[in-house]
Amino acid sequence: MDSHLVVGKRIQNRDAVTKVTGRAIFTGDMKLKRMLHGKILRSSVPHAIIRRIDVSKALELKGVKAVVTCEDTPLIKYSIHPKMADKLAFEDKKVRYIGDEIAAVAAVDEETATKAISLIKVELEELEGVFDPVEAMKKGAPKIHDHVQDNISKHFKMECGDIEKGFSASDYIIEKTFTTHAQSHCSLETHTCIADYSSDHQVTVWASTQAPHPLKQRLSTVLSIDLDKIRVIPAFIGGGFGSKIDLDTTHVACVLLSKKTGRPVKITNTREEQFIATRMRHPSTCHLKFGFNRDGLIVAKQATTIMDNGAYNSHGPSVLGYHNVMFSTLYRAENISYEGFLVYTNKNYGGACRGYGDPQATFAQETMIDMITEKLNMDPIELRLKNANNPNEKTANAVEITSCGLRETLEAVKAASNWTQKKKNKTKNRGIGVASMTYTGGGSRGSGFNYSGATIKMNAGGSIFLHTGATDIGQGSNTILTMMAAEILGTKPELIRLITSDTDTTLPCMGTFGSRVAFCAGNAVVQAATNLKELILKVAARILDTTEEKLQIKDRRVFVSSNPEKGVTFAQIGAASYSGKQEILVGTGYYDGPEVSPEFDPISYYAYPGPAMSFATHLAEVEVDPDSGRVELINFYAAHDSGKVINPLLAEGQIEGGAVMGFGWALTEALKFENGKILNPNLHDYKIFSIKDIPKITPILVETIDPNGPFGAKGLGECAMVCTAPAILNAIYDATGVRITDLPATSEVICKIINSLNPPK
After folding, report:
1. At what angle do helices 477-489 and 522-544 cross, to 10 degrees?
2. Which element (helix H / strand E) includes 456?
3. For position 662, which CATH number holds?
4. Are both 607 and 728 inside the same structural domain?
5. One domain, residues 362 and 260
6. Which residues are CB-neighbours of 5 under 8 A, at least 6 positions away?
7. Contact 738/535 with Cβ under 8 angstroms?
8. Ranges of H-type helices in 476-544
9. Which of 15, 337, 510, 627 has the most C-beta neighbours closer than 10 Å?
10. What is the pTM of this model?
11. How many distinct structural domains can be found in the chain?
């Protein structure tokens, strides 16, 4: 029986009313006194040498207050990997994709700023571009970065066990190549930033960012500004999905233009700019070779992956490494081989996107798993159960698994969907498909750190204030962190005052990504609240003339366990603590685990140091119109093991939102390129799922208790979209006999394949 009073309860998101009533203030809503508006000049060609930039005509335009180019910067390159930094805020010698930044202007209004950038004259010497990673790797291909051989930013091989021996011992071997495509994040709020560079050289930045503390650090590095002089404050954030983690030229441009003008400067991307100039999900080509026995056990698996990096690194090196981790960790194969190539092309560059390389790996692997079941005439759920990971085991690639509910998620979707009956009694043109996944459910230390801090205090009136560096981007972290604190401190979460993300008033936090906030920030909050609870009990014991061990906390009151009438309120404790020589009631917590194993390879991510692994299984039921190829999603089931669920209401919302993002990636969303140019940079031609397209989604919460998580919790946010696409495509195969191995599975693609298999007589 659950003894928690707050944790595990279905509590409304504390920001819900503020948002639905329109009272939430986003960065785009903000207007500062004397504020100017900025615009960025971007390259119109995919590859060229910059010969000259003439800004004189722009400066002559009435209403223009400043123009900045590379000459206004220290020319310091950036990336999330300092050793692989390859991007300038404004390019000085060369542009490498359509959208690359060249200059920025500040003017009295957006219209004037837009006109001004059209007056900047840029002389470019166009170079041949390369847009396919396979072509880019060939000898003689255009060089995108002069110091990079064959345009390969990262290459590695990882071997576990004996792959050749594994294939020799297999009863069957199958091979197949899978391709995935670029996906735009499509956050409703585009990238927006305001910077105010004051006369005393203090910089305040209001930005739509998932990682305010790292943004502060990167601004300091790229602009050579003292870290202590920068303050980053996020407002409400209208979605991120990975697109708002990194430093962006909008941030740099706002700061430089504000410094030049002495006035605040705001830049907001248009929707078209959001498509062409911000990062996207990395496209990939993955060739798989699997060896397996007659009984369905996987003996050996091999992957060769070519990932399209685009013009710059950003998160690409980590995404490729993570692709390896997820491919190699899921299931209990002992013989594994992985080779990965991250390749530059003259296209918009990839970045963090929900799932971080895992969706590409899981699509290929989970489609291959279904191909194995077809070969063996075995039930797809049965085969996955045979190979499923177990709790408290170490995988062949040296990933430590603590809690694991993979088997339970498989059994849960099987029962909820009536799988056995539907497989037995098939309906024409209807199909049912399943896919599983794993994901790091608590951040990682693959980058060398995984930090998150929290401070919690009681004031003289007995009110509780929680300061956390974690940022709520819509997932509800503000709610669950206050729930954790309230559970420990015997109060209601809505009574806890919350201060988040402001880099001047909170301890550093690595950011909101990697399904890490509930785990990492949660651990920090639990430490801080526990620390504060000890101090509260100490003061109360002194007031009540007893010992801490004899006291309990409930409903903002501390009382003697054996005599509940004898007690003292939080207000009385707060007043006492701030008078005389009593303790100041402040608790702190800081999480930065786990320790990195000596086995960890920062290139291949072998022995990846994730503190907890989350697991899930998705099951899709579809109906396919054979004449048009249109896929209708009928039912969708998503069972997730994310440890102890802190708030089931918010967890279900995350599952539903992630599934919908996966629907689009599987069936409709694809950035269309022609010679490096995006042809559909708008929400009319780039098809995301609307509310009328979404089927009934049944979230299923499978609880395991992870020993490393706060209250046993693990992460969920990114996991929610990872295995959606293969579940849908496996269902399409079940309905039509059409095996699609290239995403997206648009109706045109499906119709074409059906017609090729059944040509008209």
Report:
1. 30
2. strand 452-458
3. 3.30.365.10
4. yes
5. no
6. 487, 490, 554
7. no
8. 477-489, 522-544
9. 510
10. 0.97
11. 3
